[in-house]
Design goal:
There is one protein chain. This protein is mainly alpha-helical and 149 residues long. It has two domains: 95 residues, no CATH class; 33 residues, no CATH class. It is 43% helix and 4% strand. It has a two-stranded antiparallel ribbon with strand order 1-2. The longest helix has 21 residues.
Length: 149
């Protein structure tokens, strides 16, 4: 299944081996720095129930150079070629999240899951429309935590 077909059918797509290791290594170093600092500040939450951390690009954990490197990666030609192939209109950047894989060695019974926070309050049909950019201005607003604002 190609990227566009996967995205249209499932709401997400996977592109393996899109980046070379030398392109990933600097990103990995930034993310590991963030993750270590985030765990220290959020230890109870991390050890009990977290499946991800959020706001990677928000200060103060990362410095400006690290934040710019993340934004450059997110907006790189390779990433944007996929985004442009699957989205009918220009994307809007919301935030950055780091999902844990493996989920959490401290809580092996906790299962990870994929989700789209802004769509929790929508029906499947509304989710599919939102993913295609249909009715953007008419859908209820979400606060990003699955609840209407």
């Amino acid at each position: 299944m190609d990227i566009k077909a996967s995205y249209d059918q499932k709401g997400y797509a996977v592109s393996r081996a899109l980046f070379r290791q030398d392109e990933i290594n600097p990103l990995r170093a930034i993310l590991e720095h963030f993750h270590c600092a985030w765990k220290k500040s959020n230890w109870d939450f991390y050890s009990e129930k977290a499946v991800n951390s959020a706001y990677l690009t928000a200060p103060p954990v990362l410095d400006e150079i690290q934040r710019i490197a993340l934004f450059q990666f997110i907006s790189s030609p390779k990433v944007m070629a996929i985004v442009d192939a699957v989205l009918p209109t220009a994307p809007t950047f919301m935030n950055t999240q780091l999902f844990f894989d493996p989920l959490n060695p401290l809580n092996p019974l906790k299962q990870n899951y994929w989700h789209r926070d802004p769509q929790y309050h929508l029906s499947i049909t509304e989710q599919q429309k939102a993913l295609k950019g249909v009715g953007r201005n008419t859908l209820p607003h979400s606060n990003g935590r699955g609840k209407r604002a």
